[in-house]
Amino acid sequence: MRRILLLAATMTLALVLVGGGAISKQPPPTSDKGSGSIPRSTVVKASFANGSGANFLGVKVSDHGNLTSFESPAGQEQVFAGNEGYAVCSGSGLTVHGHDTGSVVGGFAAPTFSQPTVGAFPLTVTRRTTDGKFQLTQVWAKPDPVEKDVTVTMTLKNISGAPINTNVLLSRSGDFDIGNSTNSSTDRGAATDDSVWLWDDISTGEPGGVMLTALTFGTDRRTRVEVAGVWGDPVSGSRTKCLFPSETTPTNPAGDFAMGMTYVLGTFNAGQSKTAKYVYGRM
Known about the structure:
Layout: H1 2-24, E1 44-50, E2 57-62, E3 67-71, E4 84-90, E5 95-100, E6 105-106, E7 112-114, E8 123-128, E9 134-140, E10 149-158, E11 164-175, E12 188-191, E13 195-200, E14 208-214, E15 221-227, H2 228-231, E16 257-268, E17 273-282
Antiparallel strand pairs: 1-2, 2-3, 4-5, 4-11, 5-6, 7-8, 8-9, 9-10, 10-17, 11-16, 12-13, 13-14, 14-17, 15-16
């Protein structure tokens, strides 16, 4: 009987050890991957805050290079859902090499970083498209507390080893909700060749707005305003593309809109880089 009990105890211990080993080798839980092959961006990589009240500016950028927060003045958060980002396309927009607007991601590998001070600006985020065609480097400058804006310089490089002779596009876009609440029923949108913006008129009692402006004036570009629900569809939405039709602007003063700007970068020789600058600012 003692031999039977000893054998049973030995077998139980062996099972525990084997089970413990198996459990320790289980992969950790995966993050929400959005629509892409790597986890969506949820980590704030750089943040900035200055001033108070009407003179406040707060900016946050994710570890993927998404603008996750733009608050100015205090209490007026313009990027409620963190749905802002970028896309790289060719073939005049028909081929999407990579896109990332926070909760919807696809075609980009994991980022690498350069950041002199952890958690602060300036921040450099570099990513490659998983098809091996492009490398995108974003340099987010330290926000300007006087002008209430932040500039991002985006450099796209052809790393394919061959010319890319179809028209290459580089886009930023986002769903912005103006004011001190998620109520977007009074939001309006408008655009020029150089800027696109969403705002609440002073007559609404919650005046304010945010503007996306080009700083690379020698390069052709397109601005647009679109209904947010159309832009934001995770499967067919324009957020995964570089171009989409614009609403007639200025829009009616009762809507929820997204906005974006696309640079038309043309063809790329092997190893060639081209740069485009954007600035987000309070208006």
